[in-house]
Sequence to fold (265 residues):
Amino acid sequence: MLRFFILLAWLCEVWGGPLETQKRADEIQSDEGYINSRSLHPTVLNHPETVMDLSDDDTLEGDILRSKDRNAVSALWPEVDGAMSVPYEIHFDLENRTPQITEALKMISNRTCIKFHPHRNETDYLIFQYGQGCASYVGCLGGEQMILVGPQCKVGNICHEILHSLGLYHEHSRHDREKHITILFENIVSGKEEDFKVKEGNTLGINYDVGSILHYGSNYFSRNGKPTIVPKDGAVKIGQRTHLSELDVARLRKLYHCDRRENKV
Fold:
C-alpha cells in the first residue's frame, strides 16, 4: 500500500496534477463534446460543424473549406434553363441519408426562389459526400463541388452547409457584430482564434441576426467549457440548427434577386 501512494505521488509530481485532472487536460471541451489536444488535427467528437477529417490548411472557420484552386472566384450559382435551380448529386456512400439531405434542400427551396434538381449533365453541381463532419465551400466555385456530411450531421447542419455553398458566411464574423455579441478569445482553443475574427463582407443591408442558422453557438471551439461567444442580450440563445430565420430567408432572397425573378413569372 505504501508503494502505491509513493507511486501516485510521483505521478502527480511528474504530470502536474491528479490523474483525473490530467485526463481532462488532454481533452478540450466543445459545445457538445471534447477534442483531443494531442492529435495533430484535433477532432471535436460531438459537434457536426467542428468535426473535420481534413487538415487545418483545408478549412476555415471549422466547417468552411478552402478552395484548392486559388484562382477560383466564389460566385452565385447560375440559372439552369432560365430557372434558379442548383444541380446536385448524392454519393452512394450517403444513399441512406437521402431523406435528410432532401429535407435540408426543401428548407431553402420552400422559402426562396432557389430550387434544386438532380444533376444531369451540368458542369457546375453540388455533390454530397461522406465526411467525419459537416463542411462546404462558400459560393459556386465551378465544376464538381462537394458538401461533406458526417454521421452527426442533422438536417439543420446540412442546411447550414448548403447555405455556405450558396454564398453565405458565418454570421458571427460580420463587421457589425460588436453591438450584438462579445467574443471571449481567452476561452478559444489555441490555433482557432482566426475562426472568430471579423471578416469584411457585404451584409446586403440586412440586420445582424443572432437567431441565424449560420451563427456559431456559445461554446464553439471552447478550450475549457466556458463560452467563446456571449450575446449582449442575455436572453438570446445562439447557434440554433432547426430552421431558417426570417433574416436568413431575407438574405438569400436578396442575394439571388428572388423578388425580381418572381415578378418575371
User: Anything to note?
Assistant: Confidence is low (pLDDT under 50) at residues 1-46, 52-59, 68-74. The two ends are 85 Å apart (CA to CA). The chain is about 25% helix and 15% strand. The helical segments are 2-15, 19-25, 98-109, 155-166, 246-255, 258-264.
